[in-house]
Design goal:
The complex is a heterotrimer of chains A (531), B (118) and C (498). Chain A is of the alpha+beta class and 531 residues long. Chain A folds into two domains: 1-300, no CATH class; 309-526, no CATH class. Chain A has helices at residues 8-25, 31-55, 99-118, 126-145, 149-158, 160-170, 175-203, 220-223, 241-257, 266-273, 276-301, 303-308, 310-329, 334-354, 358-389, 400-403, 405-418, 425-440, 442-467, 483-501, 504-529, and strands spanning 2-3, 6-7, 70-80, 88-97, 205-207, 214-217. Chain A is globular. The mean pLDDT of chain A is 86. Chain B has one domain: Methane Monooxygenase Hydroxylase, Chain G, domain 1, CATH 1.20.58. Chain B has three helices and no strands. The longest helix of chain B is centred in the last third of the chain and has 28 residues, at 84-111. In chain C, helix 8 (154-185) runs antiparallel to helix 10 (204-222) and helix 10 runs antiparallel to helix 12. The radius of gyration of chain C is 22 Å and the shape is globular. Classes of the chains: A alpha+beta (531), B mainly alpha (118), C mainly alpha (498). Chains in contact: A-C, B-C. At the A-C interface, strand 3, helix 5, helix 6 and helix 7 of A face helix 15, helix 17, helix 18, helix 19 and helix 21 of C.
């Protein structure tokens, strides 16, 4: 699919950059222009994502085959002629989607659009805000469509700086601390990822079909094929010390983003201090990058290590689920509560992944999508109330259901989706994750279900504290949710309900890819067993 | 390897010996009849009234430095003069360049006013 | 003999040009009068011409003046780098309030910059212990004076004096090491030293002592820990233009000489069975371990101390110490990949570091201060310059899509290729620390409100053009780095080395 001779994935990725330039050109005084340009740009992105959805072939698996990838765009980006002591270096501009990334592309387009709507009442330095938001959008979209590790890494890092500014300039009272903490944590993860990437690069060679020359490559698909590993190179072989080390380095890089238990402390700070729209993006998209990276890179490139470390992964998932839920329960700050609930819900994704079977994987990826939509709703809901009351203290509210009925309706959908009520999307994905994991890690899964109980507990307790009970006199005059806010929330609510009733809309996209991913990981794992 | 340095060592040795011999010869051969007048610091000059360890005006240093700078060039010119015929035109050009560079230095010193006392 | 000298002279054209223009700068300056900028323009033309002549020598590989100096791709690369940074520095100087306020000393400024460039050109090509010491001295003597150029400022004089004292000590140590090395091998020529050492009859302890002493001389030039003590004071006290020049060109020349010295003197030229582009250190003398320790100390200390600095020049001084540490990693690995990585890093470093110093200079011109507090709210008073500063800092921290990332990428690649994993991890963690203090400045520029006068700070068009000329390559080489990598790959060739 092409427009003006440029592929659709390039369009969807770099359109925000075009928007950013437009925003920078528009004069500062033209406030409405500065809001409408990003809205139109992200709107077009949603349309493009819809076209990708419509044109997507559900039977093609992708993962490690070029033939299985769709909407592929491939061009030589950097090509450095070889010298005797340094092989030819090729970096490709290589984009494509498969069943693993399509849901993330849809999610990114959707959440970015909603984030722009949620940013409507930003008044401080609007121009810079919108420019940063659009740059962030490009980085996020790029991560999900890049199939060259170098390109992936560049997109991954491009997000850091806009995020730093978005939290640091437009955030809450402790914004400076939260912003630098986010920046340092993520950079720590990415330098470890960088080292693993370089090690992979030196170990993998492919033959250039044109010249027959051996070239070093960052091509992810080539890195997934054990046959491409140079004998004697650092990461050659199966189940070696270096491979495990590289896996751990990559894992830490992704784990910080997810965030997985010991690396999670940046998240509550960043979420609480960030403005509403940025919290939505953080929880809705950025966290998914960690798990996406694990599935796209760690698992298929290091199947031996993935199998070796599967139990620790499941244990970390358990800790995330239970610890996140317990922390959420203890919060008095509405936003912090949702931040911790994210940790708990991302644990479910990890648990599904650690199952190493199709059910678990589908549950995990579907949960990634659902968590993106549900948490986005929750943060928007907090934003609505914070805009009106200027407090997020849960105990300060009460009986809001009477003063804000429409608001209460929307938020009920979000809350019940978050706690996994059947009929809403969260239930399906959690059920799949737990079912898959139960086959592999029985005990851990049983313990993890405790998390569901805890989630139900804190969600319902919050619902009760804020919306039910005696109305607080102080908030009697709060206006109900307005049209713009509803416009942001309703599409998400529709998706949550639709996917709860008819999950095949999303699940069918990913099954064949995830089936194949499981096969790849299993095959690599059995190779490890046979010395 | 060290034998290459033999002429240099001989030169150093010769220089040192020449100095010592001259001073000592003077001491041995010269007649000495000291009087009080002769033992003063400046026999026919001023009476030393203060300590010799005084601060000098920085101008003296400037003169001294310039003197050394332009004096040393003779060290290069002497061997060149000795081998003038063998070196030929190349040697002549080289020395001209060398002196020109020094002249630029002199010009600089002059224009900067380092040659004026006040 | 004469023919040989004449032939050598033809390959010595860049250096000769610099010498001629050195004389010309003095004469023109004296004739033109006290407040003329003529010397600066003469210096600019001279350095540009010399750099042009050096580029013409690309590809030739020859020893001249009976092996005192070589002209090879490696030397040519560094001449290009040094020449380019000298040109940029002269352009800075035309807009520097510090330099322009002392117009009556422009003669010295222009001519000493030429002399310093000449010294560094010679450093890039020296293959003889004597030439090496002479070249270092020529560079150092010129830079002592330039560091104290604004002598009305007491900190400038202090900087100069500290520089001389530390310089004298380290030169003394180096000379002592050189004489021991000469005593051990009976040669002053690098290649002959290598031959003598390869026989294995040299006392290992004495060799180690000599090497450590010589490293003191190099360490002083590249400001590696523990020979770095002069750096913060000199960088803070000297005019910004000179600080920037010292941090890029002087460091590059020091690295050029050090890499050549180690590669020609201390590798086992007869080692067998090595992969292409790898070398082996001499039997029983693993000098690269020595450099590895130096590298770790340098980058860690530089970064940790930089965190506490509030003066931007001082902060950049410590950051430049840290960068010397990163680049040393490339020498440790004993491979052409490592060498190429250092060269790549230098190209990148040229743009980003000069850019950062230029912004510091522009801001100091307007506000008279280099304190981190003067940067508060600068992002709203002068957006373009502040965004440029952010890019330079992000590049220094090594984050894509800037050129600094490419430098780090190739350094880490060389390390991992040679299986120096622990050093790569230390380097990677250091770049995380470095981000913290770079971001402190970014935070002041964008996250804080201006303290006093909040009116916009406006810069003239040529100043903005210079910023853009440094900014665009910093981003462009981060996205399309083939040219710099290919240049570096072609430039690791040293005369007489396979």
């Amino acid at each position: 699919m092409e427009f003006l001779g440029i592929g659709i994935l390039t369009w969807i990725t770099f359109l925000p950059i075009v928007g950013m330039i437009a925003v920078l050109i528009v004069p500062k005084e033209n406030q409405s222009g500065l809001k409408w340009i990003p809205l139109v740009i992200t709107g077009i992105q949603v349309v493009l994502a819809g076209m990708i959805y419509a044109g997507f072939n559900k039977s093609m698996a992708g993962i490690n085959t070029l033939e299985g990838m769709q909407f592929v765009e491939k061009a030589r980006w950097i090509d450095i002629q070889g010298v005797p002591w340094f092989g030819r270096i090729v970096v490709e501009y290589f984009l494509g989607v498969d069943g693993l990334s399509i849901s993330m592309v849809l999610l990114t387009a959707l959440i970015s659009f909603i984030a722009v709507i949620a940013s409507w009442n930003i008044d401080k330095a609007l121009k810079g805000y919108m420019a940063m938001l659009l740059l962030l959008d490009t980085g996020m979209m790029g991560v999900f469509v890049a199939l060259d590790f170098f390109l992936f890494y560049v997109f991954w890092e491009v997000m850091l700086l806009p995020m730093y500014f978005l939290i640091g300039i437009w955030g809450g009272p402790r914004r400076e601390y939260a912003a630098i903490k986010f920046f340092l944590y993520t950079l720590l993860g990415s330098v470890l990822m960088l080292l693993a990437m370089i090690a992979l690069y030196f170990s993998v060679t492919v033959v250039d079909p044109a010249t027959g020359e051996k070239i070093y490559t960052f091509n992810m698909l080539a890195m997934m094929d054990p046959a491409n590993y140079e004998p004697g190179s650092l990461l050659a072989g199966v189940g070696t010390y270096w491979r495990y080390l590289a896996y751990v380095a990559l894992f830490i890089g992704f784990a910080i983003k997810v965030p997985i238990f010991p690396f999670h402390t940046w998240l509550p700070d960043a979420h609480v201090e960030a403005p509403t729209a940025i919290s939505v993006i953080l929880a809705g998209i950025l966290l998914k990058m960690g798990t996406y990276g694990l599935l796209r890179i760690s698992f298929p490139m290091f199947p031996d290590a993935a199998n070796y470390f599967v139990v620790p992964l499941a244990v970390l998932a358990l800790i995330n689920i239970v610890y996140g839920a317990l922390c959420a329960m203890a919060q008095k700050d509405f936003k912090k509560l949702i931040a911790y609930s994210s940790i708990s819900h991302m644990g479910v994704v990890l648990l599904g992944m650690s199952a190493m079977n199709t059910q678990g994987m589908v549950g995990a990826v579907f949960q990634m999508f659902n968590h993106g939509t549900i948490t986005a709703m929750l943060f928007l809901i907090v934003g609505v109330i914070y805009d009106r009351a200027h407090t997020r203290d849960l105990d300060a509210f009460g009986g809001l259901a009477l003063t804000m009925p429409k608001y209460t309706g929307v938020m009920t959908v979000a809350f019940f989706a978050a706690l996994g009520l059947p009929g809403l999307s969260g239930f399906i994905s959690e059920a799949f994750s737990f079912l898959g994991a139960f086959q592999t890690h029985r005990m851990i899964t049983i313990l993890s279900t405790l998390g569901i109980v805890l989630t139900a507990a804190y969600m319902l307790w919050t619902l009760q504290r804020v919306f039910l009970g005696q109305p607080n006199e102080k908030w009697a005059g709060l206006p109900d949710i307005n049209g713009r806010e509803l416009f942001a929330l309703v599409p998400l609510a529709v998706i949550v309900i639709a996917l709860g009733v008819y999950p095949s809309l999303m699940i069918d996209l990913m099954t064949s890819s995830l089936n194949h991913l499981v096969e790849v990981v299993k095959a690599g794992g059995t190779m490890a067993m046979v010395p | 390897m060290l034998e290459h340095y033999l002429p240099i060592f001989m030169m150093i040795l010769g220089g040192v010996l020449f100095g010592i011999v001259m001073v000592k010869l003077n001491e041995w051969l010269g007649p000495r009849r000291p009087t009080e007048e002769k033992l003063t610091t400046y026999e026919s000059g001023m009476e030393p009234v203060r300590t010799a360890r005084e601060r000098f005006s920085v101008k003296f240093y400037m003169v001294a430095v310039l003197f050394i700078l332009f004096d040393i060039e003779v060290v290069f010119m002497y061997p060149w003069a000795v081998a003038f015929r063998e070196l030929g035109i190349i040697g002549f050009v080289s020395m001209t360049v060398f002196i020109l560079i020094l002249l630029i230095g002199l010009f600089y010193v002059w224009r900067k006013g380092a040659l004026e006392w006040d | 003999m004469i023919e040989q000298i004449l032939h050598s002279l033809s390959l010595f054209l860049p250096e000769t040009t610099l010498t001629v223009f050195f004389c010309a700068a003095i004469i023109v300056g004296l004739v033109a009068g006290r407040t003329s900028r003529a010397s600066l323009y003469v210096a600019l033309i001279g350095i540009a011409l010399a750099t042009w002549f050096a580029i013409q020598q690309a590809g030739s590989s020859e020893g001249i003046f009976t092996g005192m100096v070589v002209v090879d791709p490696f030397a040519t690369f560094f001449k290009l780098l040094i020449g380019m940074s000298a040109i940029v520095i002269l352009l800075f100087s035309l807009y520097s309030a510090e330099v322009q306020s002392t117009a009556h000393r422009h003669i010295e400024y222009g001519s000493l910059l030429l002399a310093m460039t000449l010294g560094m050109f010679l450093m890039a090509g020296s293959t003889n212990l004597l030439m090496m010491v002479l070249a270092i001295e020529l560079t150092s003597l010129s830079s002592y004076v330039l560091a104290g150029y604004t002598r009305e400022a007491t900190d400038s004089s202090e900087a100069s004096l500290k520089y001389i004292i530390y310089g004298a000590v380290s030169t003394g140590l180096m000379l002592y090491g050189v004489s021991i090395l000469f005593g051990l091998t009976g040669a002053t020529d690098f290649y002959n030293i290598n031959r003598a050492l390869a026989t294995g009859s040299v006392n290992a302890t004495a060799l180690l002592v000599a090497t450590i002493m010589i490293v003191a001389g190099f360490g002083y030039k590249i400001s590696a820990v523990p020979f770095h003590f002069w750096t913060p004071d000199v960088y803070e006290g000297a005019p910004v233009t000179i600080t920037a020049f010292l941090s890029v060109a002087s460091k590059a020349a020091g690295f050029a000489l050090m890499m050549r010295f180690f590669k020609t003197c201390f590798i086992d030229a007869n080692a067998l069975g090595l992969p292409a582009g790898m070398w082996a250190s001499l039997q029983g003398f693993e000098w690269n371990k020595l450099l590895a320790i130096l590298s770790v100390l340098t980058m860690t200390l530089g970064n940790l101390v930089a965190v506490w600095q509030n003066n931007l020049k001082r902060l950049l001084a410590y950051s430049s110490i840290a960068h010397a540490g990163y680049m040393l990693m490339g020498v440790v690995v004993l491979s052409d990949k490592g060498l190429a990585a250092v060269l790549i890093y230098f190209i990148v470093y040229l743009f980003m570091n000069l850019g950062a110093f230029y912004v510091v200079m522009l801001v100091a011109n307007k506000t008279g201060s280099e304190d981190i507090d003067t940067y508060k709210g600068l992002g709203y008073r002068s957006p373009l310059i502040s965004v440029a500063m952010v890019v330079f800092f992000i590049s220094l921290a090594g984050i894509p899509p800037t050129a600094g990332f490419i430098g780090k990428l190739f350094l880490f690649a060389a390390l991992l290729d040679a299986k120096w994993i622990w050093l790569a991890v230390v380097g990677a963690l250091n770049s995380v620390i470095s981000l913290y203090y770079y971001v402190r400045v970014v935070r002041n520029m964008f996250l804080r409100d201006p303290e006093r006068n909040a009116e916009p700070v406006v810069f003239s068009a040529p100043q903005v053009v210079i910023v853009l000329a440094l900014l665009i390559p910093t981003i462009l080489f981060g996205l399309f780095y083939s040219p710099i990598v290919e240049l570096a790959n072609a430039s690791v060739v040293m005369f007489g080395m396979k």
